[in-house]
Amino acid sequence: MLFRLLFLFLSLSPALHAADFDPILDVAERHVRLQAQGLPGEPTIAMGKLDVTRLPPCSAHEAFSPPGMRLSGKTHVGVRCLGPNVWSVLVPVQISIRGRYVTTTRPLAAGQTLQAGDLAVLTGDLSTLPTGIVTDPASAIGKTLRNSLGAGQPLRSDQVIAPLVIRQGQSVRVISKGTGFAVSSEGKALNNAAVGQVAQVRMNSGQTLSGIAQADGSVEISF
User: Does residue 200 come out as left (phi exceeding 0), alpha (psi in the -120 to 50 range) or beta?
Assistant: First the structure.
Protein backbone atom coordinates (compact mmCIF):
# COMPACT_ATOMS: atom_id res chain seq x y z
CA MET A 1 0.00 0.00 0.00
CA LEU A 2 1.29 3.39 -0.95
CA PHE A 3 1.42 5.83 2.00
CA ARG A 4 1.32 9.50 1.21
CA LEU A 5 1.42 12.43 3.58
CA LEU A 6 -0.09 15.59 2.16
CA PHE A 7 0.05 18.77 4.22
CA LEU A 8 -2.43 21.36 2.94
CA PHE A 9 -2.57 24.77 4.61
CA LEU A 10 -4.95 27.71 4.70
CA SER A 11 -6.59 28.78 1.47
CA LEU A 12 -9.05 31.64 1.29
CA SER A 13 -10.04 30.92 -2.32
CA PRO A 14 -13.84 30.46 -2.68
CA ALA A 15 -13.46 28.51 -5.91
CA LEU A 16 -14.05 25.06 -4.35
CA HIS A 17 -17.49 23.57 -3.81
CA ALA A 18 -18.54 22.96 -0.19
CA ALA A 19 -19.25 19.29 -0.92
CA ASP A 20 -15.54 18.72 -1.73
CA PHE A 21 -14.31 19.42 1.78
CA ASP A 22 -17.31 19.29 4.15
CA PRO A 23 -16.56 15.73 5.45
CA ILE A 24 -12.98 16.71 6.35
CA LEU A 25 -13.99 19.97 8.01
CA ASP A 26 -16.80 18.26 9.90
CA VAL A 27 -14.47 15.62 11.37
CA ALA A 28 -11.87 18.26 12.17
CA GLU A 29 -14.34 20.61 13.86
CA ARG A 30 -15.83 17.88 16.02
CA HIS A 31 -12.33 16.93 17.18
CA VAL A 32 -11.46 20.52 18.06
CA ARG A 33 -14.70 21.01 19.99
CA LEU A 34 -14.01 17.84 21.97
CA GLN A 35 -10.47 18.96 22.82
CA ALA A 36 -11.70 22.45 23.77
CA GLN A 37 -14.17 21.23 26.38
CA GLY A 38 -11.69 21.72 29.23
CA LEU A 39 -10.65 25.26 28.29
CA PRO A 40 -11.21 28.00 30.92
CA GLY A 41 -13.80 29.95 28.95
CA GLU A 42 -16.29 29.80 26.09
CA PRO A 43 -14.56 28.74 22.84
CA THR A 44 -15.55 30.00 19.40
CA ILE A 45 -14.23 27.80 16.59
CA ALA A 46 -13.91 28.98 12.98
CA MET A 47 -12.68 26.41 10.47
CA GLY A 48 -10.53 27.58 7.58
CA LYS A 49 -10.96 26.54 3.94
CA LEU A 50 -9.04 23.69 2.37
CA ASP A 51 -7.91 22.84 -1.18
CA VAL A 52 -8.59 19.11 -1.59
CA THR A 53 -8.26 18.84 -5.38
CA ARG A 54 -5.10 16.70 -5.07
CA LEU A 55 -6.50 14.29 -2.48
CA PRO A 56 -7.43 10.73 -3.54
CA PRO A 57 -10.96 9.52 -2.70
CA CYS A 58 -11.64 8.61 0.94
CA SER A 59 -14.51 6.75 2.59
CA ALA A 60 -13.47 7.10 6.26
CA HIS A 61 -11.78 10.03 8.03
CA GLU A 62 -10.16 10.30 11.45
CA ALA A 63 -9.09 13.53 13.16
CA PHE A 64 -5.98 13.86 15.34
CA SER A 65 -3.97 16.50 17.18
CA PRO A 66 -0.64 17.10 15.41
CA PRO A 67 2.50 17.63 17.53
CA GLY A 68 2.60 21.13 19.02
CA MET A 69 -1.07 21.84 18.37
CA ARG A 70 -2.33 24.79 20.43
CA LEU A 71 -5.94 25.11 21.51
CA SER A 72 -6.03 28.85 20.98
CA GLY A 73 -5.46 31.39 18.22
CA LYS A 74 -4.50 30.26 14.72
CA THR A 75 -3.64 26.57 14.69
CA HIS A 76 -4.18 23.34 12.72
CA VAL A 77 -5.93 20.03 13.37
CA GLY A 78 -5.00 16.86 11.51
CA VAL A 79 -7.33 14.61 9.50
CA ARG A 80 -6.20 11.27 8.09
CA CYS A 81 -7.89 9.01 5.57
CA LEU A 82 -8.39 5.41 6.78
CA GLY A 83 -9.26 3.98 3.37
CA PRO A 84 -9.29 3.06 0.61
CA ASN A 85 -6.33 5.47 0.22
CA VAL A 86 -3.99 6.66 2.96
CA TRP A 87 -3.19 10.35 3.38
CA SER A 88 -3.17 13.11 5.99
CA VAL A 89 -3.94 16.83 5.88
CA LEU A 90 -3.68 19.73 8.28
CA VAL A 91 -6.88 21.76 8.51
CA PRO A 92 -6.55 25.42 9.56
CA VAL A 93 -8.67 26.57 12.49
CA GLN A 94 -9.05 29.77 14.51
CA ILE A 95 -9.93 29.24 18.19
CA SER A 96 -11.10 32.21 20.24
CA ILE A 97 -11.78 31.75 23.95
CA ARG A 98 -13.98 34.27 25.74
CA GLY A 99 -13.37 34.15 29.46
CA ARG A 100 -12.34 35.98 32.63
CA TYR A 101 -8.78 36.98 33.40
CA VAL A 102 -7.00 38.91 36.14
CA THR A 103 -5.21 42.25 35.72
CA THR A 104 -3.49 44.65 38.11
CA THR A 105 -5.36 47.74 39.28
CA ARG A 106 -2.23 49.80 39.99
CA PRO A 107 1.57 49.61 39.68
CA LEU A 108 2.95 46.82 41.88
CA ALA A 109 6.54 46.25 43.03
CA ALA A 110 8.51 43.01 42.97
CA GLY A 111 8.26 41.23 46.32
CA GLN A 112 4.86 42.75 47.10
CA THR A 113 2.19 40.49 48.58
CA LEU A 114 -0.96 40.69 46.49
CA GLN A 115 -4.18 41.89 48.12
CA ALA A 116 -7.73 41.78 46.74
CA GLY A 117 -7.63 45.50 45.90
CA ASP A 118 -4.53 45.02 43.74
CA LEU A 119 -6.43 42.90 41.23
CA ALA A 120 -9.39 43.24 38.89
CA VAL A 121 -11.24 40.72 36.73
CA LEU A 122 -11.92 41.48 33.05
CA THR A 123 -13.56 39.50 30.25
CA GLY A 124 -12.00 39.07 26.82
CA ASP A 125 -10.42 36.70 24.30
CA LEU A 126 -8.00 34.55 26.29
CA SER A 127 -6.35 33.30 23.09
CA THR A 128 -4.78 36.76 22.60
CA LEU A 129 -3.24 36.78 26.10
CA PRO A 130 0.03 35.22 27.31
CA THR A 131 0.21 31.54 28.24
CA GLY A 132 -0.53 30.84 31.90
CA ILE A 133 -2.83 33.80 32.42
CA VAL A 134 -4.49 33.86 35.87
CA THR A 135 -8.28 33.50 35.61
CA ASP A 136 -9.21 33.44 39.32
CA PRO A 137 -7.98 36.22 41.63
CA ALA A 138 -8.30 33.93 44.66
CA SER A 139 -5.40 31.86 43.30
CA ALA A 140 -3.11 34.92 43.39
CA ILE A 141 -4.19 36.78 46.56
CA GLY A 142 -1.62 36.30 49.33
CA LYS A 143 1.15 35.37 46.93
CA THR A 144 4.27 37.43 46.22
CA LEU A 145 5.18 39.07 42.91
CA ARG A 146 8.39 37.89 41.24
CA ASN A 147 8.73 41.11 39.25
CA SER A 148 7.21 44.59 39.10
CA LEU A 149 4.04 45.15 37.07
CA GLY A 150 2.33 48.26 35.75
CA ALA A 151 -1.34 49.09 36.16
CA GLY A 152 -3.72 47.18 33.90
CA GLN A 153 -1.30 44.34 33.08
CA PRO A 154 -2.64 40.78 32.79
CA LEU A 155 -1.24 38.56 35.55
CA ARG A 156 0.45 35.25 34.71
CA SER A 157 0.80 32.34 37.13
CA ASP A 158 4.59 32.33 36.70
CA GLN A 159 4.76 35.93 37.96
CA VAL A 160 3.66 35.01 41.49
CA ILE A 161 5.10 32.71 44.14
CA ALA A 162 3.42 31.30 47.23
CA PRO A 163 4.75 32.68 50.54
CA LEU A 164 7.20 30.47 52.42
CA VAL A 165 5.81 28.73 55.51
CA ILE A 166 9.07 26.90 56.20
CA ARG A 167 12.57 28.34 55.98
CA GLN A 168 15.83 26.46 55.85
CA GLY A 169 17.41 26.02 59.28
CA GLN A 170 14.30 26.62 61.37
CA SER A 171 12.89 24.09 63.82
CA VAL A 172 9.73 22.45 62.55
CA ARG A 173 7.12 20.10 63.91
CA VAL A 174 6.89 16.83 61.99
CA ILE A 175 3.57 14.97 62.07
CA SER A 176 3.68 11.35 60.95
CA LYS A 177 0.22 10.06 60.07
CA GLY A 178 -1.09 6.64 59.24
CA THR A 179 -4.25 4.58 59.65
CA GLY A 180 -5.39 5.17 63.21
CA PHE A 181 -2.33 7.04 64.47
CA ALA A 182 -0.52 10.39 64.41
CA VAL A 183 2.91 11.00 65.96
CA SER A 184 4.50 14.42 66.46
CA SER A 185 8.24 15.09 66.69
CA GLU A 186 10.74 17.87 66.07
CA GLY A 187 13.41 18.42 63.42
CA LYS A 188 15.31 21.05 61.44
CA ALA A 189 14.24 22.18 57.97
CA LEU A 190 16.81 21.57 55.23
CA ASN A 191 15.08 23.71 52.58
CA ASN A 192 12.53 26.48 52.06
CA ALA A 193 8.97 25.41 51.27
CA ALA A 194 5.59 26.96 50.57
CA VAL A 195 2.27 25.30 51.38
CA GLY A 196 1.98 21.99 49.50
CA GLN A 197 5.66 21.80 48.58
CA VAL A 198 8.06 19.07 49.68
CA ALA A 199 10.07 19.90 52.78
CA GLN A 200 13.09 17.90 53.91
CA VAL A 201 13.71 17.66 57.65
CA ARG A 202 16.67 16.32 59.61
CA MET A 203 15.34 14.69 62.75
CA ASN A 204 17.11 14.76 66.11
CA SER A 205 18.14 11.15 65.45
CA GLY A 206 20.03 12.29 62.34
CA GLN A 207 17.52 10.69 59.96
CA THR A 208 16.34 12.80 57.01
CA LEU A 209 12.63 12.70 56.16
CA SER A 210 10.54 14.31 53.41
CA GLY A 211 6.99 15.54 53.87
CA ILE A 212 4.50 18.14 52.73
CA ALA A 213 4.60 21.68 54.15
CA GLN A 214 1.36 22.71 55.88
CA ALA A 215 -0.15 26.19 56.33
CA ASP A 216 0.79 26.25 60.03
CA GLY A 217 4.48 25.63 59.25
CA SER A 218 4.47 21.95 60.19
CA VAL A 219 5.52 19.07 57.93
CA GLU A 220 3.15 16.15 57.39
CA ILE A 221 4.38 12.67 56.50
CA SER A 222 1.78 10.06 55.52
CA PHE A 223 2.33 6.33 55.76
Answer: beta
